[in-house]
Write a sequence for this structure.
């Protein structure tokens, strides 16, 4: 409150954390950025996410970006083009999946 002049509010996570078991991460051991959503909705930010991921690869070249959700073929190609050939190899398009399976990709 002292910094922003308003009383803070706690926004609870919509994710049930107990359904995300802690472990060693994905079997491939690569640092992963997982994004889930309907990427056909422009405001979901798939393009800025890919642009940011390209920059992340400069510092962490072994990282992988995993996109889970609705994505059309044209958008997938647009994102691959935006990423460039090198970065596009580090982007995985997972398609639609069950929420309880997501932790395996993260």
């Amino acid at each position: 409150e002292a910094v922003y002049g308003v009383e803070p509010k706690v926004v609870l996570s919509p994710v049930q954390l107990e359904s995300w078991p802690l472990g060693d991460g994905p079997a491939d051991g690569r640092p992963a950025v997982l994004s889930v959503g309907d990427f056909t909705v422009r405001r979901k930010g798939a393009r800025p996410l890919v642009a940011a991921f390209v920059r992340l690869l400069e510092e962490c070249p072994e990282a992988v970006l995993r996109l889970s959700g609705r994505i059309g073929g044209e958008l997938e190609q647009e994102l691959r083009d935006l990423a460039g050939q090198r970065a596009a190899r580090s982007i995985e398009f997972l398609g639609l999946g069950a929420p309880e399976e997501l932790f395996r990709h993260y």
Remarks:
- The radius of gyration is 16 Å.
- The mean pLDDT is 85.
